[in-house]
Amino acid sequence: TISAALREHLRHLGLQDFPCGLGSWVVSWGFHSHGGGAGDYAGQEETVPLGEETPEALMEILRDQHSPWALPPGCSPQDQQLREMAVLTPKIVHGSNIFWVFRSLRIVDKGVEEIDEGLLQLQQLEELILTANRVNRITSANLPRMLRVLELCCNAMADLQGLCAQPPPDLQHLGLGYNRLRGPSRDKYLTADFWPNLVSLDLSFNSFTDLLELVSQLSSLQKLRILMLQGNPLALIPTYRGFLVDSLPKLFVLDDIHIEPDERHQFQGLARQPELLKSEARVVVGIGELKGVPDPSVQQQLEGGSQAPVITYSYYVTYEF
Q: Edge to edge, what strands does the sheet with 257-258 contain?
């Protein structure tokens, strides 16, 4: 569950271990109780009892990249901020107080399968990154209501029913790339009824095939400015980009390419010609070189009078789309 992944993440940060936390190394320093900062104790190093450290010394230990207590590589800026808070104001990140501090949570490639109700402890959470996990279904009631960014790229999502039951009302980015979505459903889960404030939507590398139905839903997203659809079968349609550019006039970026005014003028009127959207596409595959395979097109020249059997070769190549 995501709760288990969060506990492991906090353990990894070591917010209660030296040089962070309320350990014996800061016992006699009253700044923790009264909310003072490190600057309040400058110049008092000579009075530090044996076994204790000043806030300045603890921060230096924390920030020095050669320190054994330095933050591990790959941690986010928020992780660094939490570590520093655990030195200067440890009571703020002690116990259940820590859950009020989180604004962003990044759990990547940790095998998370379920977003359980424990996530609701992070009531101030605005960004949730769950890239490269094993999530196949979401109970949206377990998502904090202040969420602005939800990234679910590279998971196993096959439908949006659970996510759309009680979606976060102010969500601005929804990342669903590299999942198993097959197309817009009859319930129209990709409309403003569920995502009234959506600015950015990533549906790339799924299995969407019905461009007309998808556009009819996306056109209701009045705040949508960034759309990713590359990697879907519908992107093979010859008029794919032009139809989208003309159908969604408020779009700024499509498939990581900025929509210029000239391009929009070029495709003007294409949205009123859906008959041009043929449900077929031609794919040309070129093979550069094959090694170690006899060429079947070359006729073997047999010696005169040879009774040796003639051996022929033929091959086929299969492409899976």
A: 104-106, 127-129, 149-151, 173-175, 200-202, 226-228, 253-254, 257-258
Q: Is the pLDDT of residue 33 over 60?
A: no
3-state secondary structure of 172: coil
Closest CA to 32 of 91, 80, 82, 83: 91
Gap between the Cα atoms of 191 and 207, Å rounded = 19
For 284, counting Cβ atoms within 10 Å of its Cβ (0-12 exposed, 13-18 middle, 19+ buried), the class is: exposed
104 forms beta bridges with: 127
Question: What tens digit of pLDDT does each residue of 127-165 get?
Answer: 999 999 999 999 999 999 999 999 999 999 999 999 999
CA distance 121 to 102: 10
pLDDT tens-place string over residues 276-285? 877 666 778 8
Q: How far is CA 116 from the centre of its chain?
A: 19
pTM: 0.74
Count of beta carbons in the 10 Å neighbourhood of residue 186: 6
The one-letter amino acid at 49: P
Q: Between the CA of residue 204 and those of 20, 30, 254, 290, what are the distances in Å?
A: 42, 54, 11, 32
Residues forming beta bridges with residue 150, ordered by sequence position: 128, 174
Q: Under 8 Å CB-to-CB from 294, ≥6 apart: which residues?
A: 313
Q: Measure Cα distances from 22 to 31, 72, 300 in Å.
A: 11, 21, 85
Are the beta carbons of 243 and 219 closer than 8 angstroms?
A: no
Q: Where are the domains of the chain?
A: 1-22+52-101, 102-273
CATH number of 102-273: 3.80.10.10
